User: Fold these one by one.
Assistant:
Number 1:
Amino acid sequence: MSLRNWNDLVREDYPEMGPVTKETIDKINKNRHRFRGGMRISTGRIWKDDEYEKRRRKVLNTQLP
């Protein structure tokens, strides 16, 4: 059995996740007990793409002191 080098695995391109929609969030919430590591995901606090972009624009347009 031939194992791949870990450097190859780290640099591997993963498939695009696609847009985060209400349906995506519903599926995640249904199976949230299977997710590990991300507290936001495991507690169901997920932003849809449009909510994220709105927040991102607001933060980027905030003037620094």
Note: Residues 21-60 form one domain.
Number 2:
Amino acid sequence: MKNIKQLFCGRPDLLETPEVQELIEYTQELEGQVLERKVEDSYDKEHMLKSMLSDILLSCQEYEENKLLQERYPDQYEKIDSDNLVKSLMGYIQEMNKKNNLGL
């Protein structure tokens, strides 16, 4: 992308006109808004990914706890279907990927 001086290199006298000055200020304001938006989008994705990882970690911890309880008390706890757990986890990741446009 060209900067303002590059755009007016052939006619530097135009930089002094009020209309061009106003256009330059407006352009700089828009550039600032675009930069702020990119930072916000980046933060939102980072926050969402942290939340996703937290959910996954919690699910894995619950699985481990239930597995230990099932081994200790087989009559009181059903055996955990790990295949179903992995399928659910994959579905969750794919859904979040599509919903948040992560590009995984």
Note: Residues 4-100 form one domain.
Number 3:
Amino acid sequence: MTNGGTFDLIVIGTGTAASSAALKCRSAGWKVAIIDSLQFGGTCALRGCEPKKVLVEAAKMIDLSQRHQNKGITGSERIHIKWSDLIRFKRTFTEPFPKDREDSYVKAGIIPFHGPARFVGSNTVKVGYDGNNRILDGRFILIATGAMPMNLNIPGSENVITSDQFLEIEGDNLPNTIVFVGGGYISFEFAHVAARAGAEVTILHRGKQPLERFDQDLVNQLAQKSREIGIDLLVQRAVKGIDKSSNGKLVVRASDASAADEKISTTLETDMVVHGAGRVPNIEGLDLMAAGVEHNTRGVKVNEYLQSVSNPAVYAAGDVAASGGSPLTPVASYDGRIVANNLIKGNTLKSNYTGLPSVVFTTPPLASVGMREQEAKEQGIRFRTKYENTSSWYSSRRVGETCSAFKVLIEEGSNRVLGAHILGPHAEEVINIFSIAIRLGITAKHLNDPILYAYPTNSSDVVYML
């Protein structure tokens, strides 16, 4: 074991939150070290949103072609996804990134370390593997290790692949049959890709409603669309085990989650099972107790400045922080900037997640920002709701989309936008307009007049939504 040096800031993790904080502190003249046991770059760039979106765009092309059949587009041969070429294209984004990210650190004067990190004191971290590790001392330490798939705690879980592994599947085609465990955004997004790539897809969800954090009226429409493209969506199915059969297939056993007897009610034979049942803060192995860092199931317990409530030398950002922010890349980037400010200037900037949008990148996408109806009711807010199926609107009809709708909540009296929920073409872009309105307190009237939108665009539909 050797001494790795003393630093103003030690950052554990190399994703969005980690990079934001490390680079800003280094720009302020701090001596900074950064550590990762995986390839440098973090989840979003290597195993999450960026590579996922490459696959989503390919699936959108298939869907768009199908929607335009008999609407001016024709051809004797139906287009299809060649999976090996798609993964090869995806790797043009991911493969160069770790070196580019590490080179950017070195160029900035940040010292990189490779290997697992764990605390051995309140300000001290051991990094590396047995027989080849170093001790680093830090005036401050930032934990920005992100999230990882939760433990399924079922027999045969070793037969399940994660979303990381799904993004690396080899071969010209996907397996013929795929089962996704869990009905969250990971399962829905990859299920839509897999279905458009020709696989037979099943989603097993334990609860009554999938995508529980989104408006359920719009979720119901997306669920119907999912079934129409061949996805078998089964709710109230609790997966109890996954076995290998003699013919090389996997057998998924699930019980009726609404029944008390836990009897197996569903048995599926499939080629592949994918974990989409949620993620948890990646704190395993950090030995937070050695640093006196309190944590819970949501991550490192922090105050409004993203500082550990029990160890003032430690901060946390992104998915690993129990901060009230959602596990999304914009939150990680924002958290990283908050932490950098508070390290350099003292605790002067508080986290504020008002107006944070979230998107399920299915085809069509589902986007949400602000309150849902039930939340507004529980808070006793007086509001009006505008809810409409927009499949007959020009913006949907011209692209052949039959699954589109919106719901907007507006506070009575103030006319403030409380929440917006959009399903349909370019929902992921339009939702940003509502996000700005909610974060800045812009009223529905001011979104409508005097704003002049380019027309005809999906954004110009905002005036009709209000």
Note: The mean pLDDT is 95.
Number 4:
Amino acid sequence: MHIISGEILHCRWKNSKLELDHVKDGAFAIDKAGIICAKASLGSLKTQYPEASLIDYSGKLILPGFLDTHIHFPQMDMIGQMAPSLLPWLQQYTFPTEISFHRSRHLITKAAHHFVDELLNHGTTLACVYSSSHMEVTDALFEVFAERGLRGIIGKTSMDRHAPAPLLVPEQQDLLEQITLLERWHGYDQRLSLALTPRFAPSCTPDLMHELGRMHQEYPDTYIQTHYAENTAELEWIKQLFPKAKDYLEVYESFDLAGSRTILAHGIHVDADSLKRLAARKILISHCPTSNLFLGSGLFDWQAMDSQAVAVGLGTDVGAGTSFSLWQTMNEAHKVAALRGCAIAPIETFAAATIKAGIALGFDDLGCLDVGYQADFQVIDSSQRPILDRRRNSCTSSTELLSALIHLSDDRCVESVWVKGNKIR
């Protein structure tokens, strides 16, 4: 067992309302299963658990680990590769990069370790990851996540049309590979899950999407992740490919790919009727502001999503996204909302990267540091960024402190990361 002490900052639910809980001299105990089993003063916990080891983070901030709801493993090496918009960017840079990513197992594994390093360096404890369409790349990524102790919802990207031949995998081969990955990794150590991952509707034939939907019905605890309503040219293409569908969402609905285990990335260009259906189906929308701004895709309407109670998480969307940092993602989400004339409270973006994302993904025990939650947390040392440290000392409220973190914290400040009560960085 461990006792962790330091300055604790997190979101929690109280009387059905979200609140920011901030304890400057806090402490909690972690049991052998990696669950927070008690919170009290340090002296009280030492008396209650005399056998527990004490890890003292005095002077540092203890926060929940982040949940990144949308990121691409093979695109790590193309961050900042500029193009006029989404579809040219895919053709000119993304597809060639993903083809070249199909290398030896040794090189793939090395890249996977680098990818995990970057996630941990930025305080991320769970990531929803698109691998490439290649089986060996995805298997190696799962293997490294398992070895390093990180949580992952990981998918082998399904594509059987409208992409270069080296990326296309025929329907039956894709399904067999999905089953292999499911049997090998799904549910591993309660940390890893398989996500069925049609890249987006244009890259999959109707037959393939039908079979992926059928597979999800057979294995309902798998996830589904794909892209949705990111770009206006993409929407026009959808109308051409699926003329009978009334809108983009109905394409996924018609193939049983739209439910409570579905993560739709972007959701920028969405009408009122689709918003209601997204909420009714309990679909998670992953807002990826650094990517949307980089590609000029549009300004996400946080207020509209919130008004219809659509679940919203945050995604870094590397490599159109320009940072692994969910702090930076919150920073840009604030600015996107401001451009739409909407102010988002810091607690809302922070919750979208922690407790709200956990709930939307089906984890009622992630994203918070209260009793009964998994001990997934990050330790922030503000002294590693003097401007943040100075700002921290001048804050007069917990909300001010959180806002300072959103706009000033980065990977220099992450001292350590814990998952399931184990220090993994």
Note: The longest strand covers residues 17-30.
